[in-house]
Write a sequence for this structure.
């Protein structure tokens, strides 16, 4: 039975911007596993209640139901040992925890205020008030106020990518010659920006943009 | 013939604070290799001219002379394949590049202004004017001015450690159950603070402090 992945969608059901869903999708692609997508929207809590969560991604693999993107990635790695590993070895897997936290606490945290309003505009009508309410509570101010400060945030965001920039100036991918989980985690965050906002947060000529393009090529069809 | 490591020293020849020298020392310890230390001071350029560099660490291993801490680490890994690896595997080795850049551009860059004046005070008299001149040029103001802004920098520095903190809250070391190169790179930066300034930059109860203590224990005798 083909795996099912519940993924966050915008008003346009083909608009996929959730970076956490992208993480899973990129790993499924890396492993060459067959799966089908189930579009889901923020307010459709009932549709995933069976998984014991209120958030996607949710993966249904036969009688296994797994939620939380990081748990799903590890589930796929452990359940399909004959597919290409996304971790490499024991050490690289442990270190991946750091990349996850760096992605979330630095990269994603830097992107979020800049793309939050464009994402809002792409949501299905029925999701908008839910999204506004939960996100304004998180930011402590209106989405429009957050958007207005956006431009001021760009230099600090670009500067925060310095360690990634220095790495991919010297090698093709964070994991070396081919992408592995650190690349996927970071790339998923950039796909969130692309599919959620269409914004370009990088300067022309930034080595991070060149790495992102290599990721585009390496994951074509994901 | 025992390897010789030229290491930066303070006024007290036993005062070792260079984090780049600590990197090498920690890796030598990890590998169980025998070596001896040659104390060196900033202005003793002539003593290391044979290595084609003006900076330590310089490693002399038989007829091999290697400089630059990152180059030395890779030299030791490749030259002594029968000793315990500090990288793990191909992927973890590639990813180590990121840890190096994160350590240098975030952790070390955050620490430097706070400890620069205490380090100055520990230097040998003959090094002081060299150090003041080169560092004031780098910071664009006097060491005393840099020191005065120090306290203001502490909250942002602590916040910048968030990805490390989240990682070592969940596992003993960045590399998992035992320390490997990412831990050594980061720990070397903390040893720089300890031996160069005696300052405590972490709050009591910070999981990063608990990790540092585990590193103290894991590297005892380094």
């Amino acid at each position: 039975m083909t795996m099912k992945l519940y993924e966050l969608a915008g008003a346009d059901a083909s608009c996929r911007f959730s970076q956490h869903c992208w993480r899973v999708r990129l790993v499924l692609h890396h492993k060459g596993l067959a799966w089908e997508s189930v579009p889901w929207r923020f307010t459709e809590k009932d549709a995933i209640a069976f998984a014991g969560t209120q958030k996607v991604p949710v993966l249904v693999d036969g009688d296994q139901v797994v939620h939380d993107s990081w748990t799903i990635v590890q589930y796929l790695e452990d359940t399909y040992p004959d597919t290409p590993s996304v971790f490499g070895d024991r050490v690289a897997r442990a270190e991946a925890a750091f990349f996850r936290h760096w992605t979330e606490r630095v990269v994603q945290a830097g992107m979020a205020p800049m793309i939050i309003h464009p994402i809002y505009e792409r949501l299905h009508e029925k999701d908008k008030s839910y999204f506004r309410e939960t996100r304004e509570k998180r930011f402590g101010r209106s989405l429009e106020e957050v958007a207005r400060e956006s431009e001021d945030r760009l230099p600090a965001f670009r500067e925060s990518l310095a360690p990634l920039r220095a790495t991919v100036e010297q090698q093709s991918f964070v994991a070396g010659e081919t992408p592995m989980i650190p690349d996927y985690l970071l790339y998923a965050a950039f796909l969130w920006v692309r599919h959620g906002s269409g914004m370009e947060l990088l300067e022309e000529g930034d080595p991070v943009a060149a790495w992102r393009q290599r990721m585009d090529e390496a994951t074509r069809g994901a």
